[in-house]
TrEMBL record:
Source species taxonomy: Eukaryota, Sar, Alveolata, Ciliophora, Intramacronucleata
Superkingdom of the source species: Eukaryota
InterPro entries, alphabetized: Phytyl_CoA_dOase-like (IPR008775)
Organism: Pseudocohnilembus persalinus (Ciliate)
Entries under Pfam families matching the protein: PhyH
Protein name: Fe2OG dioxygenase domain-containing protein
Magnesium among keywords: no
Key words of the record: Iron, Metal-binding
Length: 340
C-alpha cells in the first residue's frame, strides 16, 4: 500500500504544473489513500514512543487545495482583524476573546513584539492582506464545508480505528501557518493539558502541508514522555471570563533529547495526548504550514468531557460522532477531489 501511494504521488507531482489531473489519476490515488491502514510497526511506534510518523500519505493536489482555499478564505473574510487574539503557548492572552473561539472559525495572530523591526516588516503570508497570522481555529472542521470534507476522511478513520478509538469526537481543528521569519515557537506541552476528558483520551493528527525541517520550525517530540500521564490542565476560571492552569507543571524537561520530526509534505504525525512536543521559531525564508485535528473518545465509551475545559461548545454545535460523519461526508468518494 505504501509503495502504491508513493508511486501515485510521484505521478501527481510530475503533472502538478500541467492541466488538471485525469479522473482516473485522482480516482486511483483517492482509493489507495482511503484504503490506507496503519501498519503494525507504526502502531507499535505510537504505543512505545507516543509518536508515529507516516510518510507522504496525503496527495499533493489535496494539500494545494487546502492552502489555496485558505488564501481565498482570508481574502474574503470581513473584519476579522477587529478583535485580534494573539496566540501564546503560555497563559497570557487567554481571556474572553480566546475562550469564545471553541465553536467558531477564528483568526489568531503572531506576537510581533517578540521580533525585530526588520522581521515585523516581513510580508510573511504573501497574501493581499499582508498580516501575520499564527493560525485559524478551532471549529472549521464542523462549520466550513471544505474543511469538513478534508477533516472527515476515511484515512483518518482507519488510523483511529487501528489505534483503538471506538466512537471518537473531533473536538478541534487548526490551520497553523508558521510563516517565514515570524512563525513563533510553541513551547513544550501535551495535548491533554488543553483538551481533557476523564479518563484522558486526547490524540492529535498533524498534517504537513509543506516540507517540515529543522530550519523552518519542524515539530520536536520527547519520545516516551507519554508514559507519564498529564497532570497539568488549562481550565476556565470560576467566573468563566479567563483561563488558568492547575496541577503540576512539567519541569526539568531535557529538550536536548527531543527528536526533530522532519517530514515531507503530505506526511501525517500521530501524537499521543500525553506526549510532550514543541517547535522552534521559523527563522527561514520557507513556510511550514500544517493542519491539525484533535480527537477524544466519546462519552458513550465512558469518557467524560471536562466541564472545566476552556473549550465548551454550545448546544447549537455539539461534538459529532466522527465515524458517522466520515461515512456521510465521503459518500461522493474521489469525485470530491476533482476541480470544477
Amino acid at each position: 500500500m505504501q509503495k502504491t501511494l508513493k508511486s501515485l504521488q510521484k505521478l501527481l507531482l510530475n503533472n502538478s504544473k500541467n492541466s488538471l489531473f485525469t479522473h482516473k489519476q485522482i480516482q486511483n490515488f483517492y482509493e489507495a489513500q482511503q484504503k490506507f491502514q496503519l501498519s503494525e510497526q507504526k502502531l507499535q511506534d505510537f504505543k512505545n514512543k507516543g509518536i508515529a510518523v507516516l510518510p507522504e500519505i496525503l496527495d499533493p493536489q489535496q494539500l494545494d487545495e487546502v492552502i489555496n482555499y485558505t488564501k481565498q478564505m482570508i481574502k474574503k473574510s470581513d473584519g476579522f482583524q477587529k478583535q485580534k487574539v494573539i496566540f501564546s503557548s503560555g497563559n497570557s492572552e487567554r481571556g474572553q476573546a480566546f475562550i469564545q473561539t471553541g465553536d467558531k472559525i477564528h483568526y489568531f495572530f503572531e506576537n510581533l513584539q517578540t521580533f525585530t523591526e526588520e522581521q515585523e516588516k516581513t510580508d510573511a503570508l504573501d497574501f493581499e492582506n499582508k498580516i501575520a497570522l499564527n493560525k485559524i481555529a478551532h471549529a472549521q472542521h464542523d462549520l466550513d464545508p471544505f474543511f469538513e470534507q478534508f477533516s472527515y476522511q476515511q484515512v483518518f478513520k482507519n488510523i483511529l480505528q487501528k489505534i483503538g478509538y471506538k466512537n471518537p469526537r473531533c473536538v478541534q481543528s487548526m490551520y497553523i501557518f508558521k510563516n517565514p521569519k515570524i512563525g513563533g515557537e510553541v513551547g513544550p506541552h501535551t495535548d491533554n493539558t488543553f483538551l481533557t476528558t476523564t479518563p484522558l483520551s486526547c490524540m492529535g493528527i498533524w498534517i504537513a502541508l509543506h516540507d517540515a525541517t529543522i530550519e523552518n520550525g519542524c515539530l520536536y517530540a520527547l519520545e516516551g514522555s507519554h508514559k507519564k500521564a498529564t497532570n497539568y490542565f488549562m481550565v476556565r476560571t470560576e467566573d468563566q471570563q479567563e483561563v488558568t492552569f492547575i496541577g503540576e507543571e512539567p519541569k526539568n524537561l531535557d529538550l536536548s533529547k527531543g527528536t526533530p520530526l522532519q517530514v515531507k509534505r503530505g506526511s501525517i504525525v500521530l501524537i499521543d495526548g500525553n506526549a510532550v512536543h514543541y517547535s522552534y521559531h521559523n527563522a527561514s525564508k520557507k513556510p511550514r504550514h500544517a493542519f491539525t485535528l484533535h480527537f477524544v473518545e466519546g462519552e458513550d465509551q465512558g469518557y467524560k468531557w471536562s466541564e472545566k475545559n476552556w473549550m465548551q461548545r454550545g448546544k447549537h454545535l455539539p461534538f459529532r460522532n466522527y465515524y458517522e460523519i466520515v461515512d456521510q461526508v465521503q459518500k461522493k468518494g474521489w469525485q470530491n477531489y476533482i476541480q470544477k
